[in-house]
Specification:
It is a single chain. This protein folds into 2 domains: about 1-80, ACT domain (Alpha-Beta Plaits); about 90-170, ACT domain (Alpha-Beta Plaits). The protein is built from 5 helices and 8 strands, in the order E-H-E-E-H-E-H-E-H-E-E-H-E. The chain has helices spanning about 15-25, 55-70, 85-90, 105-115, 145-160; strands spanning about 1-10, 30-40, 40-50, 75-80, 90-100, 120-130, 130-140, 160-170. The model has no long low-confidence stretch (mean pLDDT about 90).
Length: about 170
């Protein structure tokens, strides 16, 4: 077995997930991890797939050509690199930001995180009722003090005009 990464994007409509996973099932592939979302009528997904050795990135893309054309998707398949040793040592945290929406919030906070060696595993942002919310799932490197990071984020948040919270991720929650 090998691990492949599949990305697909297109106009949202019923049947996208069924169409793509149907092809995967017929080829003997197993869906090991995925993330899917809809933004303003566009659907995007990324999947990590365990594929039999005879299913290559190119052959999987070819097998998906008919379904992706029918569903109006742009699909890309690559060989996944797998988990690194750094991933195993990372500590999972959640950062929540709340405030009035204006340009630069995500840029400034993520620039600070990158400078601290923090990896962003997931980011979700929404604006509702005049409140802009950003939720980041992050991986802290082993040598980074969470308290020091929280203090730095609070300082950055004050400059940007948002509230911020850093907490340990609940490993039992999905």
């Amino acid at each position: 077995m090998q691990e492949l990464a599949l990305t697909a994007i297109g106009r949202d409509r019923p049947g996208i997930v069924a169409g793509v996973t149907g092809v995967l099932f017929k080829l003997g592939c197993n869906l090991s991890d995925c993330s899917m979302t809809r933004l303003s009528g566009q659907f995007a997904m990324i999947m990590l797939i365990e594929a039999p050795d005879e299913v290559t990135a190119t052959s999987l893309e070819d097998s998906l050509a008919s379904a992706s054309s029918e569903l109006g998707l742009t699909v890309t398949v690559t060989t996944a690199s797998g988990t690194s040793e750094d991933d195993l040592d990372a500590r999972l945290y959640v950062i929540s930001l709340y405030g009035s929406d204006h340009p630069g919030i995500v840029y400034k906070i993520t620039t600070e995180l990158a400078g601290q060696g923090v990896n962003i595993a997931d980011l979700l942002s929404r604006e509702a009722g005049g409140i802009y919310t950003v939720i980041l799932e992050v991986e802290l490197p082993p040598n980074l003090d969470p308290g020091a990071l929280a203090a730095r984020l609070r300082s950055m948040a004050a400059e940007v005009g948002v509230e911020v919270n850093l907490r340990t991720a609940d490993p039992d929650a999905l």
